[in-house]
Amino acid sequence: MNRSSQAKLIRIFRKIHRISGLNLVIFILVIAISGILLGWKKNSNGYILPPTQKGTTTEVSNWLSFDSLKTIACQTMFDSVGPALPVKINKIDARPDKGVVKFVFDGHYKGIQLDAATGEVLQVATRRSDLIENIHDGSVLDKAFGTGSGIIKIIYTSIMGVSLVAFSITGLWIWYGPKKIKNRKRARKK
């Protein structure tokens, strides 16, 4: 590739880099900040992600049935948070090494941790990490617009992923291209 073609390519890449950056800067900042927060979630002293409590036994054979634990979790959600929030369970997270079962609910960011053997309520807490994750991956937009299919999340993550690849390639070329041109000039002078 001759020098003028290389310079033209660098100008095109700079333009792509600049225009894409200006159009996506807010989304890039949202992804970066939410990614930082997600990286720190377990080290936030319980603010982003409530710490996992400890149950009375790690022996799974001594645990109550999941059906019994689910009933306790749903009743606890209804009693402690009120009937305004739905009690539909999104996820059940069993931690055998801690003797705990966590219940995460749909439609809000409250979670309940139960002692798996006794059913005792160990914690009712807000799981801010779930909200941050939904912001990070764009699924918060699907919730806001009521699309059950996750199509906005797919479009959002695809655009942002392709943009990151484009920024990497154009940024590398913007940095490397002038060095290559300068090295060719030096080689010709010798």
TrEMBL record:
<dbReference type="InterPro" id="IPR005625">
    <property type="entry name" value="PepSY-ass_TM"/>
</dbReference>
<keyword id="KW-1133">Transmembrane helix</keyword>
<protein>
    <submittedName>
        <fullName>Putative iron-regulated membrane protein</fullName>
    </submittedName>
</protein>
<keyword id="KW-0472">Membrane</keyword>
<feature type="transmembrane region" description="Helical">
    <location>
        <begin position="21"/>
        <end position="40"/>
    </location>
</feature>
<dbReference type="Pfam" id="PF03929">
    <property type="entry name" value="PepSY_TM"/>
</dbReference>
<keyword id="KW-0812">Transmembrane</keyword>
<feature type="transmembrane region" description="Helical">
    <location>
        <begin position="154"/>
        <end position="176"/>
    </location>
</feature>
